[in-house]
Predict the 3D structure of the following.
Amino acid sequence: MSDTPQTPLLDQVDRPADLKRFSDAQLIQLAGELRAETVSAVSVTGGHLGAGLGVVELTVALHAVFDAPRDKIIWDVSHQCYPHKILTGRRNRIRTLRMKDGLSGFTKRSESPYDPFGAAHSSTSISAALGFSVARDLGGMTPEGLGDAIAVIGDGAMSAGMAFEAMNNAGHLNKRLIVILNDNEMSIAPPVGALSSYLSRLYAEEPFQDFKAAAKGAVSLLPEPFREGAKRAKDMLKGLAVGGTLFEKLGFSYVGPIDGHDMNQLLPVLRTVKARAQGPILIHVLTKKGKGYAPAEQARDKGHATAKFDVITGKQKTTPSNAPSYTSVFGKTLTQLAGQDDRIVAVTAAMPDGTGLNLFAERFPSRCFDVGIAEQHGVTFSAALAAGGLRPFCTMYSTFLQRGYDQVVHDVAIQRLPVRFAIDRAGLVGADGATHAGSYDIAYLANLPGFVVMAAADEAELMHMVATAAAHDDSPIAFRYPRGEGVGVELPEQGEVLAIGKGRMIQQGKRVALLSFGTRLAEIQKAAEALAARGITPTIADARFAKPLDRDLILSLASDHEALITVEEGAVGGFGSHVAQLLAEEGVFDTGLKFRSMVLPDTFIDQASPADMYAVAGMNAAQIEARVLAVLGVATIGEKRA
Ligand SMILES: Cc1ncc(C[n+]2csc(CCOP(=O)(O)OP(=O)(O)O)c2C)c(N)n1
Ligand SMILES: CC(=O)[C@@H](O)[C@H](O)COP(=O)(O)O
Ligand SMILES: [Mg+2]
């Protein structure tokens, strides 16, 4: 052996084509280096670690065998894409992941030609890959060419209806399409559901790959190392009736399961599939989430998401919080109420920890339902729970509830069923960026007849809203609250039931009224302090409800002030629009009221800290102050009139 230190192979990779020069042994070495680089990068940025570590070998193998960007590698959810980013020309920016002006934590078309399809919500990859396959076969083209389409989808993501809709269609169209099922027996939490049990059974019966391929007479599809075993299996299978996997029933050829950390299995299988696949084929790959980094492997969530951390110890660098998170306040309040009312049940779509329902589930396991990544089903299921006399809390992130919108309209609202929607991650969420922003729920719920829509201004208000929702049996009701910690207000023993459609006055002032809906209230109060220094004392009110509106409050604010400004953490079409509609209907604009509505801008805001994202949106304290000054015509140097 030479003593000269060798240049790491990773330093020789600018783009995936560079991998073609490496031997299989070198690819194995490269995978080791890629894993270390991924850990190092995430240690300084924080982010999704475990999923990426689990697909290091798969990422290397895919890029070594296929020809991206001509071939389209589509990562489902794409929280596992960091190793892919490192190999596709973005290593020099990998330590900017999820930061302002940095790399997105997900695949993004505008970021790289190696990201043919953006994602972040789950279970879209097979549909996308099928679309590329059909486009290819119908003569479509992309600037990079158009070859194979490969979807890499996790066992969690595979549980969603959309994945099955896509497989159903793919089996029918029978186009050449490659789906890699990355089965690590984990979602964010341990996966639940019949599909998960089915997948476990699939590989409990080793050597399954031999039996299935043999049963289908597909021995020749298998790479050399498997053929002998397959032949033996075929002999053994003589006379046995083999039903085929679910995937085969849907029209896919099935290969697997194979060890997704063994390049000596991955490379030959992928090469064979590339050379020979004709219709849709599913390769079942077994991996370990967090693979190769002990702190991730040992973590309860297998390192799904992490703060910055020390690489040696794995210890995360979190800042101590001054207040409880909204999520935990919700979880505790609901658990407390459920102790007093056994009709309360809770539904989560694969996010028990993220929504705080883990607390509820510990105490009331039989009343908490993790439906898997299945928001549509979760909503309709909740509707029927309500119809059956229970008090369901359908608990979802604002952004993921979007997927269940037709169910919200058709199954809940039209039937006026009292589903309680607990909507977490309302507003701008930070590092996950535009895909995860909870921007639209106010608009998409408040326009539904009969819906009650609330937003908590602080964590005590959230407690009141949970109690209000629990007590409300007349119609659907929703309350929203943001990601992260509360403002640190004192918490009551119990939430109190609020009067539906009634806001509250925070501060009586003059000339201008600021009407808040949600947690911008704290920024409004900061703005008011700055305004006080200029001799302006605004009136401040917390609307609490976007629907029904507090008409009396709003009309009196309008008649008693020169200007009225609404502020909300949501896109246009929400609270401010409803207030404007009321003012218009009541002829208030004819009286000369200056009305302004501060909403999220008509643009998708990239990842940054929530404060930076709200600065881009123009909704931080200084910007609220500037808006007040402008509407009152108080000249300040360098500021535009509102
Ligand atoms: C529609 C939707 N619902 C929920 C989520 C939140 N989410 C992100 S990753 C994930 C688990 C995915 O599990 P799996 O596909 O098995 O990937 P793994 O992390 O195990 O690699 C969930 C629930 C999401 N991104 N999209
Ligand atoms: C990839 C994904 O969708 C989730 O992991 C999400 O990033 C979780 O967000 P929170 O950190 O806000 O729970
Ligand atoms: Mg998984």
